[in-house]
Amino acid sequence: MIRIDIQKNSSSKISSIDFNNLGFGEFFTDHLFQANYEHDDWITPVIKPMDKIAIHPGNSTLHYGQAIFEGLKAYRKANNDIQLFRPEKNIDRFNKSATRLCMPQVPKDLFLSAIKSLVDLERKWVPERKYGSLYIRPFMFANEAFLGVRPAEKYTMIIILSPVGSYYNKPLNVKVERNFTRAVRGGIGSAKAAANYAASLYPMQQAKKQGYDQLIWTDGQNHNNVEELGTANFFAVIDNKLCTPKASDSILEGVTRDSIIQLARHLGIEVDDNGVSVTQMEEAYRTGSLTECFSTGTAAVISSIVSIDFDNFKAEFNTNFPIAGLLKNTLMDIQFGSNKDIFNWTVKV
Ligand code: COI
């Protein structure tokens, strides 16, 4: 086991935080984890006071975007125990993203003990359930100054923590995006690469200007297969069946997506994870069998959709979302420890 050096901050900012109004990703805790990679090895893993990092202007991440990240959360149980939700899934996905971006693997034991030690040190920052949870953001970037286009040889991995409330504060009005594409076949869409989020910004900004909260991404070839919703995965309830886009190299397979599929099957809800098309949704809406749509993600948890603009018509949904509501409550009760963890998903800190 690699030893993590712990250097404590002599002061804390926690008293300046209004836990009633956390928003998403606006506040950061007092410490971060950092490890550097060079000569084929992770060196100097340390937990130290939160501070700025110095970057050389020739750093290749700033030029060519060799950067990946993850998102998971720590939850406060009613008895004040703190637990993580399926952290191994995020660690595996991080290393899969690293492979796609020619970056080094982070050993699982180092990664998990970094998360646990950092969250343990910052446990007072984990909000009570009524306020939210503690978002954990691990990320890695090339940390070498050179301007040739090649994978770097030096990297930095950092974990920061942010107490968060809801990502969305109301159900979403969305449109189907048929011009822009988030990711294409053979691209980096299944990696949690910073570049995928950069590609999404302009279309999202346009959608917001047109009055939508988010957009439904469609495939880059025919713009008819649904891929994702904003920065999260997509689900539609058609004929009481949960339908979701098929995993592919243009879709980021979420930990929440996987958990919802397993929970739904456990609750007796049929799941079709072989894809859902825009045409299928339009027809199902017209016949009355498309009854709910929602997105799933660590940040978004489960966020329901109140309207979808299909270009030629607008679909509107009843706002009581019975299936999304049931799945959300069941999932959150496991995450916050008020329901039995039948799948063994939680990890105590
Ligand atoms: C997450 O749900 O963790 C995400 O990655 C969304 C984030 C980019 C806000």
> With helices defined by DSSP (H or I, 4 residues minimum), what is the helix count?
7
What is the fourth-level CATH superfamily of the largest domain?
D-amino Acid Aminotransferase, subunit A, domain 2
User: From the alpha-carbon coordinates, what is the Rg to the nearest angstrom?
Assistant: 21 Å
Bound ions, cofactors and other small molecules, one mention each = 2-OXO-4-methylpentanoic acid
* Count of structural domains: 2
Could you tell me the CATH topology label of the largest domain. Answer: D-amino Acid Aminotransferase, Chain A, domain 2
- Into which percent range does the helicity of residues fall? 10-25%
What is the N-to-C order of secondary-structure elements (H for helix, E for strand)?
EEEHEEEHHEEEHEEEEHEHEEEHE
What multimeric state do the chains show?
Answer: single chain
Q: What is the typical, i.e. mean, pLDDT? A: 96
Which percent band covers the strand fraction?
25-35%
Q: What is the top-level CATH class of the largest domain?
A: Alpha Beta
Specify the overall morphology.
globular
Which architecture of the largest domain would the CATH scheme give at its second level?
Alpha-Beta Barrel
Distance between the termini: 17 Å
Total E-strand runs: 18
Ranges where pLDDT stays below 50 over 5 or more residues in a row are: none
Structural class based on helices, strands and sheet pairing: alpha+beta
